[in-house]
C-alpha cells in the first residue's frame, strides 16, 4: 500500500508538472520574454513537496490542505493572467486617440507565431487546467479520506469547474472584451475561486469523548457541538459561498444590470448561483438546528419537543427558499423574453 501511494503521488505530480510547463511555455512563446520561465518555480518545488509529504505523513497526503495543488496553481494562475491580459490588449482599439500608452507598455504584444489561434490556446489551457485538477485529485493518494468522501469531492470539483469556466466566456462579450477593469475583476474572482481546490473539507469526525472514544448517540453529538464553533461541513459550505457562489453572483448581477450583458447562459448561471447560495444557507441552517442544544424550557419528552422545534424552523426556511426560487425563475423568464424581443427588433432595425 505504501508503494502504491508513492506511485500515485508521482503520477499525479507528473500530470500537474506537464500542464504547468505547457502553460508557462505558452506565456514565454507569446511574450517572447524568457524571464517568464520563473513562473515554473511552483512546479519545480513539487519534487521537494513530495519528499516532505511522503516522509512526514502516514498516507502520503496531508489531511486538510494539499500543498501539491497549491504549488501547481501558483504557476498556472499567473500564466492565465498574462495570457488573458494579452488577449485584452489585442482586443483594444490601438489606433484610437483614447488609447492608454502605459497599458501597452505593461502588456506585451502577441507575436502571432502560433498555428493555433491565441484565443483558442487560452481556452484550451483553461479547460484542461480544471480537468487536470480533477484527474490529479483522483490519482493522488486519498490520505485519510474514504472512497465515498473522495467521490463526493470529485463531483464537487466538476461542478465548480463548469461555473468557473463560464467567467471566461463573459470576457468575449462585446460589452466586456475591451473593459480592463471588468476583466481584471473577473480574473481576480477566478483566482479567488481556485483557492478551494487545495483545501480538503470533506473530513468529518464524530465528537470525541474524554476517554478517547467516539460518541454514537445524538446527545453526545450535541455535547460535541458545544466544543467547536462549526463542523467541517459548515466550514465547507461557508467557504463555497465566500470563495465562489457569492462573489460570482455579485459579479454576474453587475454584468447584467450595469454592462447589459444578457444572454441565456448568463441568466442560467446567475439563477444557478442564486439557487446554490439559498440551498447552502438552508443546509447550514439544517446542520445548526439539528445540533442545537436543548433549552431549559422543554417538555417531558425533550427529543420530541426539539424535533418539533426543528421542523417548525425547517418549514420557515423552506418557504423562504421557495419564494426566492420562484422569484429567480420569474426573473429568468422575464429576461429571456427581453432577449428574444431584442433579437426580433435587431433585424427590423437593419432593414430600416
Automatic annotation (TrEMBL):
UniProt keyword Membrane, yes or no: yes
Record-linked Pfam families: Tmem26 (PF09772)
Keywords attached to this entry: Membrane, Transmembrane, Transmembrane helix
Transmembrane segments: 7-28, 34-52, 64-83, 181-201
Keyword Transmembrane included in the entry's annotation: yes
Protein name (database record): Transmembrane protein 26-like
Organism the protein comes from: Triplophysa rosa
